[in-house]
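ENCODED BACKBONE
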Amino acid sequence: MSITTDAVDEFYANAVSSGIDMDDRLKNGVKLLVQLTEPKAIKALSLLLKKMESLEPLLKSLDSLPNTLAIIVDSFDDMYNE
């Protein structure tokens, strides 16, 4: 048990010395945990996980969205400048 306590203390001290506000992060983590365990959130997350396979192609297509938008904007710029 003391080994675990020492490890946690060392982790906490290293985080604080790196400028990380561990108290703030822990408070925010608890708030997030409360939100994630609300029945509405669990229902929504469960539905999302069930739909993940069908959403995967859509999510992959979003990777090319910035390039596609750049091409569209360039085309409009070219048409406007003519």
